[in-house]
């Protein structure tokens, strides 16, 4: 069974462009040691109004932001984006 989300935030977002990319760094890539970057298009339906909800859990496990490589991943996130236009 999955664990419940500890935090959630929801907000309105208006995009005036065809694409609105935000990059999320997910830590070093195992092969290249470069930061893995995932591009997220927040304006997937083009210009207009959107709702964004972010869920999080595990943020208090390593409050100093340091996690040993041998430890399992502590923080988990869920990002949801949907069109709020009429």
Report on this structure.
The protein is mainly β and 86 residues long. It has one domain. The chain has no helices and 5 strands. The protein has strands at residues 7-15, 21-28, 35-41, 48-57, 76-83. Strands 1-4-5 form a 3-stranded antiparallel β-sheet, with no helix packed on it. The protein has a two-stranded antiparallel sheet with strand order 2-3. A hairpin with a 6-residue loop joins strand 2 (21-28) and strand 3. The protein is flat and about 45 Å long. It starts with 6 loop residues before the first strand and ends with a strand. The model has no long low-confidence stretch (mean pLDDT 79).
Secondary structure elements and their pairing?
Elements: E1 7-15, E2 21-28, E3 35-41, E4 48-57, E5 76-83
Antiparallel strand pairs: 1-4, 2-3, 4-5
Short summary:
With about 90 residues, this protein is mostly beta strands. Helix content is about 0%, strand content about 50%.
Helix and strand composition category: mainly beta
The H/E string reads: EEEEE
Average pLDDT, rounded to a whole number, is 79
Gross morphology: flat
Helix share bin: under 10%
Rg (CA only) = 16 Å
Percent strand equals: over 45%
Number of helices, counting only DSSP H or I runs of 4 residues or more: 0
Enumerate the strands of the largest sheet in spatial order, edge to edge or round the barrel: 1-4-5
What distance lies between the first and last C-alpha atoms, to the nearest angstrom? Answer: 37 Å
